[in-house]
Amino acid sequence: MTELVAVASDRIAAAINPLGAELWSLTDPARREYMTGADPAFWAGHAPLLFPIVGALRHGCYRIGQRVYQLPRHGFARRSRFVLTAQEPAVARFQLTQNAETLAAYPFAFVLEVEFRAEGDCLRQTVTMTNPGEAPLWFSLGFHPAFAWPLPGEAGKGAHRVRFAEDELGPIRRLDPETGLLLAEAFQSPVRGRELKPDAAQFAADAMIWDRLNSRSLTFGTEDGSRIEMGFPDTPMLGIWQKPGAPFLCLEPWQGVADPADWDGDFRTKPGVVELAEGASRSFRIDVRDEPG
User: What is the DSSP code (8-state) at residue 19?
Assistant: First the structure.
C-alpha cells in the first residue's frame, strides 16, 4: 500500500507520493477533491514531475558532444523514489540525487529538491535543481498536474473555462501522434482573447502546446462555481492535455519541450534546455489556489 505524505493548512490539504515526489490529492475543507482520480482506463498519473527532459526524444536518445544517451519520455524523476528530508504539518521536502542508474542515462551529478508548502488556500510546489559538480550541466523540467474535470460542484464539463492572465493570440504547437515529437508547423490557437473553452475533441491530436507563452498564471473552473488559480512564474511554456473524454484536464507549466521532429542537434542547444553552472541552483514553482464555489 502506498504511504502518502500529508501537508495541510486550515484551508487546503495535500497528499504526496514519495515515488516521483508526486502530488496525489488536493482537497478543500469539505474534503472535495480537486485532482484526478487517476482512472487507469484513461491515465494512471496524478501530477508527475518531468526531469531531466520534457516530452519525447527523437529515437529515444539524445547527444552531448559525441556521447549518446537514452531516456524514456519525460525522463526518470517520475519513476524514482525520492527521500523525505523534512516533514512538518504544513511542509514536506523530498530529494533525489544521482545514482548508478541515473548516471548511465544522464551523466551529471545533481540534487533535485521538491518542497510542498500549504499556506492558507495555496499549495506551493517548489522544485530546486542544484549542480554539485565542477562543470556545467543541462536539463529541462516540467510540471504535469491533472485536475478534476469537472471540478467539485454541480457544474458540468461544458461550463469550465481556462482563463489566461494575458492575451494568448499566438499559434500553438502540436505533436506527431506516432512519435510524440514536436511538429514544425504552427496551428491556430483555440484561445479567444484570454479564454479557452476546453473540449475533448481538441485533444484528439494529443496536447496543445504554447512554446511562447505570455501568461504566468491562469484559472480553471466555472464562473460561479469551483475554480483553481495556478501561478507558474518560472516556466515560459505550457501544455494542456487530456485523454479525450477523461475526467481530468492537465495544465502543465514547462521549461522545455519534446524534440522537434527533425532534431539532430546537441542536447545542450535544444530549445528550452537550461544550462546550470557548477555550484549553482535554479528553482521553479507552481502555486495552486482553490476558489470553491
Answer: B
Which residue's entry shows cell 495544465?
Answer: 251
CA 147 from chain center: how many Å? 12
CA–CA gap between residue 41 and residue 39 (Å, rounded)? 5
CATH fold for the domain made of 5-291: Beta-galactosidase; Chain A, domain 5 (2.70.98)
3-state SS of 58-75 is HHHEEEECCEEEECCCCE
Task: Give CA–CA dist 270/263, Å, rounded.
Answer: 8
How many CB atoms are closer than 10 A to CB 282?
A: 17
pLDDT in tens, 80-122: 999 999 999 999 999 999 999 999 999 999 999 999 999 999 9
Q: What is the largest CA-CA distance in the chain?
A: 57
Q: Is the pTM of this model over 0.70?
A: yes
For 48, the 3-state DSSP assignment is: coil
Please say if the pLDDT value at position 293 is more than 60: no
Give dist(CA 111, CA 103) in Å, integer: 13
What mean pLDDT, rounded, does the chain reach? 96
E strand or H helix at 117: strand 111-119
Task: Note whether 263 and 215 are within 8 A (CB).
Answer: no
Strand duo 195-196 + 161-164: pairing: antiparallel
Q: What number of CA atoms fall less than 13 Å from residue 174's CA on the CB side?
A: 15
Where do the domains of the chain lie? 5-291
Q: Please name the residues in contact with 29: beta carbons below 8 A apart, sequence gap of 6 or more.
A: 10, 11
Q: Which amino acid is at 128?
A: T
Report the C-alpha gap between 31 and 198 in whole angstroms: 26
